[in-house]
Structure formats: C-alpha cells, structure tokens
Amino acid sequence: MKRKFTLNFNYLIADFIARLNIGLLRKLRFIRIVKTKLNIRLLRILYQNGFLRTFRIELNFIAVYFKFYKSQPVGKLSIISRPGKRCY
Question: Phi/psi of residue 5, each to 5°?
C-alpha cells in the first residue's frame, strides 16, 4: 500500500532549489523533480531569464536540462527566506 503525503509550501520550494543546486554542482546534464504547478511556474521563470536550457513535463515528473557556459553553471539559486522572515 502506497502512502500519500502532502508537502507544505516552504518544503516544496526548498526541495526544488536544493535539487537544482545539487544538479548544478555535480554538473549533471539534467535532473528530475516533482511535478507540481508551483515547480512548473518557477521553471518557466528560470527558463525565461536564461538559467535553464529547457525543461520537459512528463507524466509524474519534470526533466530539467541545465545550461552551462565553459563547463560552469550559468547561475546559482539560494533561499533567502527564513522562519522569522518570509520572502518569496
């Protein structure tokens, strides 16, 4: 029996950014992330601003392809929001 669990809003964003940064540090060609409406919106913003090569929406996940320049990542993401001060 599969368990279904819900993720809160902050965890989704933190997980999204952590997966992107790990993929960039390892210089992976692409990674897979959880398919949510929030992740799709964030990926569109990153794509429009030139941080990603492309992304493909699959059935249960999203494949994110990174952009590199001279074997270095184009950018790095970080979380500036803290429990006492939320910034989105």
Answer: -125, 155
Whether 78 is covered by a domain: the verdict is no
- Token duo for residue 70: 């001279």
Residue 86 lies in a domain: no
Does residue 28 sit within a domain?
yes
Whether 65 contacts 55, CB under 8 Å: yes
DSSP 85: B
pLDDT tens digits, 44-61: 999 998 889 999 999 989
Q: Which position has the higher pLDDT, 36 or 74?
A: 36
Domain count for the chain: 1
pTM above 0.70, yes or no: yes
66 by Cβ neighbours in 10 Å (0-12 / 13-18 / 19+) ranks as buried
Report which secondary-structure segment, H or E, holds 17.
helix 9-25
Q: 39: domain range?
A: 9-73
Please give the structure tokens belonging to residue 12: 């989704």
